[in-house]
From TrEMBL:
Protein name, UniProt field: DeoR/GlpR family DNA-binding transcription regulator
Single GO MF descriptor: DNA binding
Pfam families in the cross-refs: DeoRC, HTH_DeoR
Source lineage: Bacteria, Pseudomonadati, Pseudomonadota, Alphaproteobacteria, Hyphomicrobiales
Originating organism: Phyllobacterium phragmitis
Keyword DNA-binding: yes
Length: 258
């Protein structure tokens, strides 16, 4: 199918930001939302974009989006998720914080705590929290990914295994309909698995766009976490998995944002 100039511009915006929204595009191009929905449907039919509620995602089945693009996706939702997760973590707790833009939102929300011991393989989290009095920040050794400051590899896995902490805050790149938690880098997945195995209470933080994505490497299963915090869970099957496995589901928005 022939791509119009507007189609090409929408694709470029989606590639840059990771996600585009109907209302934003309608305002940008000065057309109706119905026109933009047709544009997105056309692009999705050609498998150039992936449709989500209220917009579309730039597809990334084998490669993750760039860090800055991921930070911009669902930024407000991640902030609310971070605040909800922080409410579960009391002063004096020990915790792991894993790689990810949503886990970083949790670290931001924890900055008002008086005392915490934070073990992380995320350089961005360590840099944010280390300057606050009362925060004891311990950072893993290993290979530093230049793309996002994540520390991965066997050295990081061995480091994590030295600890047994109160909480783990983990993210995921995608959530499959069967409850599988998925990611892109097998080295990161090994660290995440070690984190899950060495925490008394595992908190999964993930915005609803992760239900629309896929990734090739399995971290684990939703049944392995204790609390799952998202802005909105659109899949009844995922809700049932949470109920069956006594996973507490916390939604920060009562309905999806258009």
């Amino acid at each position: 199918m022939f791509l119009t100039p507007r189609h090409n511009e929408i694709l470029e915006l989606a590639k840059e930001r990771g996600r585009v929204l109907v209302d934003d595009l309608a305002a940008l191009f000065n057309v109706t939302p119905q026109t933009i929905r047709k544009d997105l449907n056309d692009l999705c039919q050609q498998q150039l974009l992936t449709r989500i509620h209220g917009g579309a995602l730039y597809p990334s089945g084998v490669e993750n989006l760039q860090y800055e693009a991921r930070r911009q996706i669902a930024a407000q939702e991640k902030e609310a998720i971070g605040a909800a997760a922080a409410e579960l973590i009391p002063d004096g707790a020990s915790l792991f914080i894993n790689i990810g833009t949503t886990t970083e939102a949790v670290s931001q929300a924890l900055l008002d705590r008086k005392t915490l011991m934070v073990i992380t393989n995320n350089i961005n989290v360590a840099n944010r929290m280390r300057v606050y009095q009362g925060m004891e920040v311990v950072i893993a050794g290993g290979v530093v990914r230049g793309s996002d400051g994540g520390i991965v590899g066997e050295a990081a896995v061995d480091f994590i295994r030295q600890f047994k902490v109160d909480f783990a805050v983990i993210g995921t790149s995608a959530i499959d309909r069967d409850g599988a938690l998925l990611d892109f880098d097998f080295r990161e997945v090994k660290v995440a698995q070690a984190i899950i195995a060495n925490a008394r209470h595992v908190i999964l933080v993930s915005d609803s766009t992760k239900f629309e994505r896929t990734a090739p490497v399995r971290i684990g299963h939703l049944s392995q976490v204790h609390t799952f915090i998202t802005d909105y869970c659109p899949d009844p099957g995922i809700r049932e998995i949470c109920r069956e496995n006594k996973v507490r589901l916390i939604e920060t928005s009562p309905a999806p944002v258009s």
